[in-house]
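OP here, attaching both records as promised.
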Amino acid sequence: MKAQGLSGGFSPVRKLTLLYVTAFSSIAAMAIVGQILIQSMLAQQKHDAYVVNIAGRQRMLSQKLSKSALALASPSDPLNRDVRRRELTDVVKLWERSHLGLQLGDEQLQLPGENSAGVRHMFAKIEAPHREMLAAAKGLLVSSDSLEAARQLRLILENESKFLPGMDQIVFQYSSESSERVHGVAHLEALLLAVTLLILALEGLFVFRPAARKLRRTIEELWDTEDRLRREKAVVERLLASSQQPPVAAQTSRPKPLPSLGIVKG
């Protein structure tokens, strides 16, 4: 009986502990999963910022390439041709590298090279004018003939008008996709919050509420047991007290002392 009482006393405690551990573990798991998803999306947003920045710079570099080519081919330019040639060389290298990095990825430029199907289609549309501008700029750098330089310059200017609108569309598409991912993060956070609140509600209904009822019943049983033990103790104490008192019959059976007889002396 005593072993059963101890086992019955410890079983609710173990069950309650298991319920609490399960409840808090599920909440912790939701928090960890949410943080992993959000951190990965924030990292994607960081890459998106670099991509949009580099794509916007490509538009500026294409215009700078045309201006540097015009300056290099102009005989009246006040700066030295070597200075203009170095300037055009730097622009061509950066423009070409950024164009490839946006499509294939570049670790140093922090470009992932992970484009959507729409962006890849847009790059395919501007590939021909980009290739024509790049070849003409490189030809202009090594050309010493004024007629050839004029032809290369004309190719650059003609293809620039085709490249710029396409590059503008790519920048807009990158920005639009980045905005959609931002909205996706907001929706994910709202979903995680809703799921967490749902889990808390279910745990309160199916875990904490039954546990509180079980705990209340256990406490009431302990109070009842304490009252019963207190009453039993009082009964035992009364029995012990009555057993220590002498019986009434023993008190009445004692012989009474005889009265003393007086002797008359003569």
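Record two, same layout:
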Amino acid sequence: MRKQKQNIEKKDVREPDFWRTPLDIDKENVQKGEVHIIKDRCKACDFCIEFCPNNVLAISEEFNVKGYHPPYVLEPDNCVACKLCELICPEFAIYITEDNNLKTDKDEQ
């Protein structure tokens, strides 16, 4: 009985297995984006950090002119230019640029 519980606990900790891939994965490029933050507009609501699907942003230690901690780009390579952070920001303090010259996942292979 103990072995079964230990096995279950180990399964909960490991990374998820992705059991399928898109059929057109070799034909499609994943768009990459570049995140731009206007630090002095930010009021540190953290919506951009909370709702980013790829955990691109994190809260910084520095202060802006309003006395808030603005976000910073933690993982720039993970940005897929979904622009959710741009849409959800109430202060218009963040925007994404899509550049065709940026490397895509397909270019790296």
